[in-house]
Prior knowledge:
With 382 residues, the protein is α/β, with parallel strands linked by helices. It is 34% helix and 19% strand. The strands form 4 sheets. Strands 11, 12, 13, 14, 15 and 16 form a 6-stranded mixed β-sheet that branches.
Amino acid sequence: MxxxxxxxxxxxxxxxxxxxxxxxxxxxxxxxTQQETIPxxxxxxxxxxxxxxxxxxxxxxxxxxxxxxxxxxxAGRSLAIIADAVYLFPGAAERLVVMGKASQxxxxxxxxxxxxxxxxxxxETEVSAEQVAAYNPDLVLLKSSMAESLGTSLETLxxxxxxxxxxxxxxxxxxxxxxxxxxxxxxxxxxxxxxYQQRMQDVQDRTQDLPSEKKPQALLxxxxxxxxxxxxxxxxxxxxxTRMVETxxxxxxxxxxxxxxGWTKVNFEQIAVWDPDQIYLVAYFNNPEEITxxxxxxxxxxxxxxxxxxxxxxxxxxxxxxxQSNPRWVLGLMWLASKIHPDLFADLDLQEEMRxxxxxxxxxxxxxxxxxxxxxxxxDLY
Length: 382
């Protein structure tokens, strides 16, 4: 795979792999689309040498800041998605003054790339606008889903809010563009966008013309035992996990099921009815390799086609799982494609892709990568 990333500024008119946000009716998706990002530029004036910043956020709102933000707060839910994207920009860490609690082990990862992480204030997931305002931020970054519960109250207090999503590749381009503007580093945003474009396009080029008979029936399930009982869950059709499976060249067996807006529980009987060719298991709070090993020793699971053929695989993770819309999802897509169609991706060097992602994209030192990242890797990587 091509490891080169163009560093020239681009107009952000891009051809991308689109994990289409489908309607509840589960309509067929179109994997590639074109979209023009709304132009947004910092404007410098004699009275404002820092430059006025204007952008259009994830809710389609025009947001204007008189000066570049220097005290930024991250609050609300789904912080791992936004925080890890912010840390893709050199110098952004110095502007973060307060962060909400994130799930999984995101804080441990961010402490590796932010020497001052321990000095930042930490907010609970459920937080009021007044609690955020106590830290005197000049900007708050929120998921768009937090607009009603938190964002409106913050703006009532006079605190600017920029909404981000980072849930699909299409949104990644838009939201990285906006972070580039906020951090006055549009060139870095262009580099990142090019990286995601290249990796997505490579997968798409190899799988888009596969006939249906060449697409295996695949199941992606999330294993959860946090409430004391074991549950298996499947994602909605419009989530990135489902789009990953489709883009990687397989048919998601659960697409026609009665699905909710979040993870939907399914029992073993339903899994046995589907009897997929391949099963990919996600475990956010467990070691996925241990879970798949236990299932392979279970006689019921052993009777499934995927298990009999050695195709029950643990989805990789380091500090957090690669199936999510965290920046790591591009690693998850490449890994998944190489497992679904090993013949088409025989030249994929996943070890090099991982090294490139952490050392070149996140700017982690080779020593830190060797000593802190590699030991955390779990799942059926190779």
